[in-house]
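TL;DR need structure tokens for one chain.
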Amino acid sequence: MSATMSAAGSAGRPAVGRPPAGGACRSTRLPAPPSGRPRTARSQRGAALLTAIVTVALIATLASGMLWQQWRAVQVEAAERAQLQAQWILQGALDWARLILREDARSGREDHLGEPWAVPLAEARLSTFLAADRDRNASVEEGLDAFLSGRIEDAQARYNLRNLLQQGKVVPAELASLRRLCDLLGLPAQVADALAEGLRRSASDRSGEAAEGQADTAGPRDTPIPPSRVEQLVWLGLDEATLQRLAPHVVLLPQPTPLNLNTAGREAIAAVLPGVDLAAAQRLVLARQRSPLRNLEEARRLLGEALPTLEPQRVDLRSSYFEVFGMMRLEQLAVAQQSLLERRDRDVRILRSRRVPVQPDGSPAGAGPRTNATPLQQ
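>> reply
TL;DR here they are.
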């Protein structure tokens, strides 16, 4: 019986190491994968994160653009405000120069480089002019970084090209003076002839004399525009190199004027006075540094007794036209201005005023030579 039970038990369970009956092998199954719902949630979370990143990037880009636009608008407004402030300050300096020339006219004496208007105004901090009280001016000095400089030049210290014409015709004596000036500067005499002819043609076109046959050889398109400043002489065919050499010694004033022997350079003196060489002109310049000339007879003795009487129409010791150069430096901004003033007795008028570029050395462009310059003083 026990044997029978043992056989039955053995027949009821599989033997160790053998596959169960029927040859089928049972394998261990992994848990069934979760349904598709959790995977869809992860995808939505990834899309939301990507949308958030793009939104943040877009907002950051828009914000930075708005900040840049705001910064640019502030910078433009600050630059415009600084330019406007500089222009008003330069206008005040110009009125200051007019007052100086008006007070100088009280003396009624000769104009020379030893007068108060000939003292330079070097670059000075603007706050030093605002208040005499140091305590109340301390806050201004700390916050205001502005500097003012300038000078006055005697415009009649240079040869006036308007002297070349009289009633629309070239004056031979003045043309000879311009030729001598060109020779002293190392320029050909053809430069003087070209300038005289160009000025004559431009003056004839302006006054209507071209219709009378004086400018019939040139058509209306060939007639140059009348220049009003030395820089505009290029309209008459002058090249830049020649203009750079000639500009410090010539000027274009509204009307003919005599040369001031108390302020003119030796080249202009030797050019205007026939028979006077550079040595004699230099002797006069050195003599007037010790004591300014008081009359034309004194100048004639210094130039040489053989010199004929000096003509008041060509040389004088007083001036009516002055150029004012002012420059305002406000932080990184530098603004320069050039003005032409006319003085009649004690009436000083502004004929023209314009902005000029600032040279690399910090001085306004268009100024005459330093030997003839008479700086703006306080």
